[in-house]
Amino acid sequence: MRGTWIATLAIALVLVDILLSLLVAPEAANFRAPLTQRIFYYHVPSAWVAYLAFGVTALASGLLLWRRDHRWDAWALASAEVGTVFSVIALLTGLVWSRQEFIGYSPFRDAKVVSLVVVILSYFAYLTLRANLEDGDQRARISAVYGLLAFLGVPLSYLASRASLHPDFTRPDESLEAALGWFLLASTLVFTVLYAALMHARLRIARLEAALES
Amino acid sequence: MATDLQTFALAFCVVWLGLGGYLLWLHGRMRRLERIVQAESLRRLRP
CB of A85 within 8 Å of any CB in chain B? Predict the structure, then answer.
């Protein structure tokens, strides 16, 4: 019942968010492609959710190693899977936007792109590693260690904005207009609710799989 | 080079088809597992 409630809320908020970002949010100044700029309302929240999800994986992995409680293994796996989906979306939307915004842009020389690709590959490796370990206890412990190590790439990916063409809104000369900032914040909150709904569904799958195994 | 509208449409589709596809995949996986668990518990109840 709670799952239906959070999924309904997430879908309703997503629909409102799409309408806000397409019809209500003002057109941004200082961008070559003002319509494509609106993809910020999905790109930035996707990146935030990806970082949050990988943080939850690291936290759950740490708790599993500390408390020896295997319930955290399901949380680590669910969050890594959801985070990987959002990080791929953040990467693709960022690539599409930068191709339109910058003339002669090469993503292969951009620190932000390269670091995010490394993060995504490390979480693909995490999922592959888990799928290839048979023993439940061994799989949980090895995955937890890897889940903690993989998170090291996340702050590096975030800080890579400083050595890249990627906009850094924390810098005064690149700060976003206040009106756009509010829409971005609203979209980020909506994506966070969507993350919670996806996590709820993914954890339910983990419980069903555990019930079948036992 | 693609127009501003074409590029936005592409990125928009990437986001919502990607997330929608993942949501449908999760939903299908959950329903299939629920059916298997239900069938398994019915099988155990039979004498």
Answer: yes
